[in-house]
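Technical annex B. To support the medicinal chemistry partners, we prepared a structural model of the target in complex with cobalt (II) ion, based solely on the information shown next.
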Amino acid sequence: MGGKRELTPEQLLQNNRQWAAGKLAGNPGYFDQLAHVQKPDYLWIGCSDSRVPASKIIGLRPGEVFVHRNIANVVPHTDLNALSVIQYAVEVLKVTHILVVGHYHCGGVSAALKGTDYGEIDNWLVHIKDVWRDNYDTIMALPEDKRADRLVELNVAAQVHNVARTSMVQTAWAEGRELTIHGWVYDLHDGLLRDLGVAISGCADLHAAYRIRELCEKARKAGGS
Ligand code: CO
């Protein structure tokens, strides 16, 4: 249990052949069926951390969740990668739920709090430091060993709002489509996800400054909020 396995790339390819054979043994049409379908209802935006395998911990099969991961699950509005994933998921795949999933003991969040010189990644971590600054008193009032986990939660909430502030999400609402952005946190110690209760499902949940007026007006007429 828990020991580090030493695996060569050749062994990974061997694992892959065994896995594919196992799937075919259970269902000879497995890959033919999957190859034709990518209709996920979910977009997962999570941390790159190797201990948080997206589809596994929510019990979804290939084809059921579209995944974007980066260090500390951040959604900057100038990140072409994140924006492209959201655009494709919302406009083409027409997902109905976006899950922003952080995790406790996140190395990226801890690094932001430590303020150590990590090199280029420090620039990425500024996004986390922004969340720290916005909640500085709340976080600094906590005992030192509780601060990182609280910042993990507040970062998830902040990124839920960042997703909702995009033109793609507000366009979906303007078209009268159901689209909810959820904020969850994964606990490495018990394998459980916790809903932070910070979900956003319409313009009414957005600060007025971030509403795209014409889109939110259309959404209101379409019967949303
Ligand atoms: Co992490």
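Notes passed to the chemistry partners:
The mean pLDDT is 95.
The two ends are 50 Å apart (CA to CA).
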